[in-house]
Design goal:
The chain has eight helices and 15 strands. α1 (about 15-30) packs parallel to α5 (about 105-115), α2 crosses α3 and α6 packs across α7 (about 155-170). The radius of gyration is 19 Å and the shape is globular. The longest helix is centred in the N-terminal third of the chain and has 16 residues, at about 15-30. With about 290 residues, the protein is an alpha+beta fold. The protein has helices at about 15-30, 45-50, 65-75, 95-100, 105-115, 140-145, 155-170, 225-235, and strands at about 1-5, 35-40, 60-65, 80-90, 115-125, 130, 135-140, 170-180, 180-195, 215-220, 245-250, 255-260, 265, 270-275, 275-290.
Length: about 290
């Protein structure tokens, strides 16, 4: 059975028309499906947990973006019998870009109808939370709090929030442990990527592959006020490796220790307060429909 999951706020305008295209294509292809409309935060997780624990083989179709994928992944109970597919209708669609899922709805549906699911990686946090695209702490959390403080999430709001955060955010001290190493940093961000980008198109994790069995660990150390603009331009151009304050390595696991008071991390754009940022890559478990 195919289970389509979509947030109720997408049940209007262009996004509703996309959903109707999906339903029509499934009907024409003789694909049986159930439509689930989520009503609140965490609702998709509850739905998927129930669906994937019934012992049957199911395809969970996320009709949304990174946030929808995040909730769905955290509801998976039986990875062997269940697989995941995506119709991108989110704000940023960062993971869709990394997975080469077409933003054209008909083409995205054709991936589900004509392709077999393949194994991809995801990020497993020690807290039990799973992340499909990226996790991090520092300025990315500050940006999210500024951008999504209201109810209307747009790329333009994220970009504005990023600029403000770059100008106002203060570096913080933390320790990172990976591959037997332990390093101290005073930085702006500490992040782990499975996908190549976050924040609606910021290519922070160049070289990341969603099925290579590795995390891309990225650390941005202190950047002076005078160097902020130049670093920002390189970041937006997708050239983080040109910023001397950025360290990027591949690893299978990492632990970040924050030296301060209360803190928060983000996972696929969802904020978690005072959750440890300790994670490893999980491979050969999640089946995903890819072109």
């Amino acid at each position: 059975m195919h289970h389509i999951i979509i947030n109720e706020r997408h049940m209007k305008g262009k996004k509703l028309r996309k959903l109707n295209l999906v339903r029509k294509a499934f009907q024409q292809g003789g694909i049986k499906y159930v439509l689930h409309i989520t009503k609140r935060k965490g609702h998709a997780t509850e739905i998927v947990r129930e669906v994937t624990s019934d012992g049957e083989k199911n395809v969970i179709v996320a009709c949304g973006g990174d946030g929808t994928l995040h909730e769905i992944l955290n509801g998976f109970e039986n990875f062997e019998n269940n697989s995941l597919a995506l119709i991108p209708v989110g704000t940023g669609n960062d993971f869709a870009t990394s997975a080469n899922i077409p933003t054209d709805t008909k083409k995205a549906v054709n991936v589900i109808l004509n392709c077999e699911p393949r194994y991809i990686d995801y990020i497993q946090l020690s807290s039990g939370v799973r992340s499909i695209n990226a996790v991090g702490m520092g300025i990315d959390v500050d940006v999210l709090k500024r951008a999504y403080g209201g109810s209307n999430a747009k790329k333009s709001k994220y970009l504005h929030a990023l600029i403000v955060s770059l100008l106002q955010f203060k570096s913080y001290d933390f320790t990172v442990k990976y591959d037997g190493k332990e390093e101290s940093h005073c930085g702006l961000i500490a992040a782990l990527g499975n996908g190549k980008q976050f924040g609606g198109g910021i290519k922070l994790f160049n070289g990341a592959q969603i099925s290579d069995g590795y995390l891309n660990l990225v650390i941005a150390d202190f950047v002076s006020r005078s160097a902020i603009l130049g670093a920002f331009m390189k970041l937006m151009a997708g050239k983080p490796e040109k910023i001397k304050q950025i360290t990027s390595v591949k690893t299978r696991s990492a632990t970040f220790i924050y030296h301060g008071g209360e803190f928060a991390i983000q996972a696929d754009g969802e904020i978690y307060d005072n959750m440890p940022l300790e994670a490893h890559i999980e491979s050969g478990k999640l089946k995903f429909y890819l072109p």
